[in-house]
Amino acid sequence: MNLDDLDSLQHDGLQRFAAATGLDALKAIEIEVLGKNARLTEFNKGLGSVAADERKAAGARINATRQALTHALASRRIELAAQERRVRLEAERMDLTEVIATTHQGHVHLITRTTQDLEDIFVGMGFQVFEGPEAETDWYNFEALNFPPGHPARTMHDTFQLELGEPGSVVLRTHTSPTQLRVMQQMKPPIYAVMPGRCYRRDTPDARHLPTFHQIEALVIDKGITLGHLAGTIDTFIAAYFGRNDLRTRLRPSYFPFTEPSAEFDITCPFCGGSGCRVCGRSGWIELGGCGMVHPTVLRNGGIDPEEYTGFAWGFGIDRLAMNRHNLEDLRDLLDNDVRLLRQF
Amino acid sequence: MLVPLSWLRDFVPLTHSVAELSDAFNSLGLEAEGVRVTGGGLESIITAEVVAIRPHPNADKIRLVDVRIAEGGAPIPQIACGAWNFSVGDRIPLAPLGTTMPDGLLIERRKLRGEWSNGMLCSAAELKVSDDHAGIWILPTDTPLGVPIAEAMSITMDAVFDLAVEANRPDAMSIVGVARDLAASLGVAFTPPAIAVVESPLVTQETVGSITAHDLCDRLTVTVIEGATVATSPPDIQARLTASGMRPINNLVDASNYVMLELGSPSHAFDRAKLAGGVIGVRWAGEGEQLVTLDGVTRTLSVDGTVDGVIVDGNDVAVGIAAIMGGATAEVDNTTSTLLLEIAHWSPMAIARSSKRLGLRSEASARFERNSDAEQLLAAAARFVQIVRRTCPDLRVVSSTDIRPGGVPQPTTIRLRTARVNAVLGTELDDTRVVGLLDRIGFICIPTEPGVHDVTVPSWRTDCELEINLVEEVGRHFGFDNIVRVVPSNSRVGKLTQIQRDRRLIRRTLAAIGVTEAWTATLISPADLERCGLPATAVALSNPMVAEESVLRTSLLPGILGALKHNANHRNPAVRFFETGHVFDQPRPRQKTPYEREHLAVVLAGDGDDAASAKRVLDMLVEALGVVTAAVGLRADDIGGLHPTRSARIIGTGTNFPFGAVGEVDPGVLEAWGVTRRVGWLQVDLENLCRLPRRADQLQAFSTFPSSDLDLAVVASDVTPAADIEQALRSAAGDLLESIGLFDVYRGPGVASGSRSLAYRLRFAAADHTLTDAELATVRQRCIAAVETAGGQLRA
Fold first, then answer.
1. Is the domain of A120 the same as that of A262?
2. Most buried of B228, B612, B651, B695, CB within 10 angstroms?
3. Are residues A49 and A128 in the same domain?
4. Cβ contact, residue pair B29, A255, below 8 Å
């Protein structure tokens, strides 16, 4: 055993490690250089035949060689692992802007979104949401709401009549107000209810009117409810819906058979802040809907004593509100269900 | 209603601005929908005389005019003018340099085709004093020169308000009524018109008039007037009618219209010589009775049980439709000298019915429909005489007849509680204030006890019958803006119901998997249903606007297919839609209204979509809603409108009740709609879906021991539903089953034709130990036996 051979052995091992091109190759080289049958291992085995006084030094030298090789092997392994990872990851490189879309997100309808926004505000104010049928008897749509047969106010509603029963006895509801009666029949006061829904009038369609339209109506019946509460509720609602406190509301006396006193309510035009613009027709106000104190006759028709309870109702068109808020110029554009419109909301 | 400010000033001293008046009208509930200002902005316009006219050297249609603005004064050279209706010596209005015209145009020195023009000669329309565009306004020859046109022609600034009068304001259909309300609101004096009523002895028996239809007319006044001649009305009368939107005709018709506008009482003047017997009567029309009205149209006055009221002559021949339009036979004309003036109080309902049926809505019928003031008929007749006398000084009232079969009615009296006023309005008004507000608009309040008044309603407020009507009047004149606004304290918790929350969840779920919400029409055509292969049992409208929208939808299918088609036509064929909406069918027994249900429909026309996609959407909704999976079953069926071999009814397994359908739209239906791709379809009754049993909301413990999988490939005939195989496996697997899933379906070599191999993976776990091979072997044998019972066979 010539210990001087260790130098060339070390030199040769280091060179072979450095020359390894991959982890698998390195593994094979490792076995040849440091394995059980490696020449270096034979040096260890041969230590027994070395003179006792030289054995310690010889052992130290063999270990030094092994250590140097083991250290170099570890470094090289790290190097090669990093290199292989680099190559592998590079092969996986992906341009995230070249991804092909498979499923597109669907969209909830503009009118639904608006309705839900409105419902949410009312729910936040402690209201419950009620829905009623779209085909109604004359009693619910008109008579119970204080439009007796032949009443001139009926001409304000151009009504679609159904071919059922006596002529005119079943109609498509012209407003959401019949649901007021259904709520009164269903629960005792206090009533804090909001009623969205689809309504129908026999009107020629134009940019701002469709024969099929959507209304939402709020009804409060409780002890001690006044017109002041109605105005206060409208103020609160408007501030919440538009998310701002600078909009004023005004009530103008008006006429609806089922409320008295009745009023129309306007809000400061949210687009110009009241200075006058195209949306508000330069008036600074936007007419939003109708409201009033529930007529005593209507309360009685709903089984509620008007001397014990008072109430208010107010409602407005959802489509018109959505139109104003989302810059929709012509409601008829909604009839096509064109995805180029629906996908914008 | 068009209301000229100048006319209001006859009864109310108004010094307010147009804006202030608009606000006052709005706060009274007489919405000022528009206002037109006339006769303003004329300060710089002066009178001038044309002294010379020369042709324009470079223009055929323009002349060069010299004018002067003082008698014999020096001419102002030269004004280019395109009008040709004047000549030298005419007096005209001149807008000198520097004038701002009423429309805002600034008159400057400028060249017209190379010739200077130093001002402008004006038409009446350019000055906004009339609509006369015909040419330059030629002034009377004695007009002084160089004075402001407004002074020379007595033009005053006027404003015409367009007021929206609601159905409960009969009083506001007149200038006097509007003036009364406005005066009260502004706190200024109101002076009613001075009319001397008694001119001739009043006759109350039937002589020249009679009523046989007491339910049509409860008061008829007839005034016989001699000495009338047809002439042109005085300019101020014409001007007021024009401003109020009525065309001047002649002095007699104009006087009738003037009184109607001013007092709200329509009247009709007959030529008495053309009335048989010189008398009129009021009755209902007879069956099939006809009349040629003033407009030359022959009208049948009794159709399908709707009967019009008629005015008849002494021979019982109709000469007019009550309150709506006169007949052609007794019309006043140039030969008329004796008038029979009819002013009556008609049943509002009868007039509304007639005017609607005949499609004749007139200024008169609008007033009668609101229920006119029955107490001022004689005053109206006297006012008519007053107006006509301005053109017919020799006018004589021969007789006044007042027929009132029911006698003079008691005025309406209503008990009003101050506490009630405050309870409704949210005010703190005292008795004095309440009385003060009502008193100024003609309500007479007599105190009966503290806080209570008996209120007599004036005859012009026929709408007021209940205490609440008076509360509204108090509120209106107190001002809604003055009411303190309060938010009610509501201790209730607002919350959506289960179905409302489910509906929102369904919408969110569908949107998340790429389905977009549509809203389609409720009103469709029977042909749409037919094209969808659906029965034509739909509820029909009795008064559709168009045939395409004449029945109520029985399904969401037609509407959504229409939406698909629209988008395909706009190069977007690959779309997925859903809709929630009401569908209608014939009423159930003993019900009056249609059987109305809310449906959810999903239509899938994306690339690769088919019946399987629709089934997957159903599964996803069931999972999202937390419905027990086993509660929903499918039963293959041939369903109207759907693909006969690729569709199934959706049933509630608990009740065996079908509540929807899933599959594909029938290819024949798609062809009929022009849709050229496979379309997956899902439709459910929303309420039934949401009523299905839900998974318990209590946590189910799962095993902490390792689980074992068992894969079984089962060969079953194509007619054996996979659902049956799965159900058999589920039952056989028992309590140890953690999950089961179909992961492969194979048809082809190795499997007999008409059958397929269904590969299921079953995962087992026990709560308290690791499963042994022996246990798994037992379960496996059970499963195989169950599959065989269900008609399947373990794949070799």
1. yes
2. B228
3. no
4. yes
Lowest mean pLDDT among A218-232, B130-144, B695-709: B130-144
Contacts of B542 in chain A (CB under 8 A): 161-163, 167
Cβ contact (<8 Å) for B582 and A229?
A: no
Residues of A in contact with B517 (CB under 8 A): 106-109, 112, 342
Rounded CA-CA distance A200/A193 in Å is 22
Q: What angle do CA B377, B378, B380 make, to 5 degrees?
A: 65
Structural domain count of chain A = 2
DSSP class of residue B280? E
Q: Between B230 and A50, name the one with better pLDDT.
A: B230
Q: Residues A296, A149: one domain?
A: yes
Sort residue B217 into left (φ over 0), alpha (ψ -120 to 50) or beta.
beta
Question: Per-residue pLDDT averaged across B306-333, rounded?
Answer: 90
Q: Hey, is the C-beta of A281 within 8 angstroms of any chain B C-beta?
A: no
Which residues of chain A are within 8 Å of residue B352 when distances are taken between CB atoms?
150, 152, 155
pTM for the structure as a whole: 0.86
Hey, what are B686's tokens?
């929303």
Shortest alpha-carbon distance between residue B512 and chain A (Å): 5
Give the C-alpha separation, A324 to A317, whole Å: 11
What is the average per-residue pLDDT within A210-230?
Answer: 96
End-to-end CA distance of chain B: give it in Å, rounded. 91
A97, part of any domain: no
More confident residue, A176 or A287: A176
Q: What DSSP string runs through B390-455?
A: TT-TT-EEEEEEEE-TT-SPPPPEEEEEHHHHHHHHT----HHHHHHHHHTTT-EEEEEETTEEEE
Distances (CA, A) of A267 to A199, A230, A231, A274, B142: 24, 14, 12, 9, 55
A209 lies in the same domain as A125: yes
The domain boundary, picked from A34, A62, A92, lies at: A92
DSSP track, B316-378: S-EEEETTTEEBSTT---TT---EEEEEEEE-HHHHHHHHHHHT---HHHHHHHT---GGGHH
What does the alpha-carbon distance between residue A86 and residue A90 come to, in Å, rounded to a whole number? 6
Q: Is the dihedral of CA B476, B479, B480, B483 positive or negative?
A: negative
Q: Residue for token digits 């209204």?
A: B593
Whether A263 and A150 have beta carbons less than 8 Å apart is answered as no
For residue A33, give its domain range. 5-92
Share of chain B above pLDDT 70, in %: 99
Q: How far apart are CA B61 and CA B93, in angstroms?
A: 21
DSSP 8-state secondary structure symbol assigned to residue B265: -
Distance CA A174, CA A158 (A): 8
- The interface predicted TM-score (ipTM) is 0.88
Q: Is B198 helix (H, G, I), strand (E, B) or coil?
A: coil
Contact B662, B614 (CB under 8 A): yes
Partners of A252 in the beta sheet? A264
State the nearest Cα–Cα gap between A138 and chain B, in angstroms: 10
| Residue range B606-628: mean pLDDT, rounded | 96
Same domain, A177 and A61: no
Amino acid at A248: R
Tokens found for residue B81: 């003018």
Strand (E) or helix (H) holding B506? helix B498-512
B229, B337 contact by CB (below 8 A): yes
Instruction: Note whether A161 contacts B: Cβ–Cβ < 8 A.
Output: yes
- H runs (alpha helix) in B750-795: 773-789
**Would you give the DSSP letter of residue A186?**
H
Which token pair is A288? 């939003």
Question: Which of B25, B424, B556 is most worth mutating to test chain A (most A CB atoms within 10 A of its CB)?
Answer: B424
Let me know the angle formed at the C-alpha of B668 by B662 and B670, rounded to the nearest 5 degrees. Answer: 70
Q: Which residues of A touch B687 (CB under 8 A)?
A: none
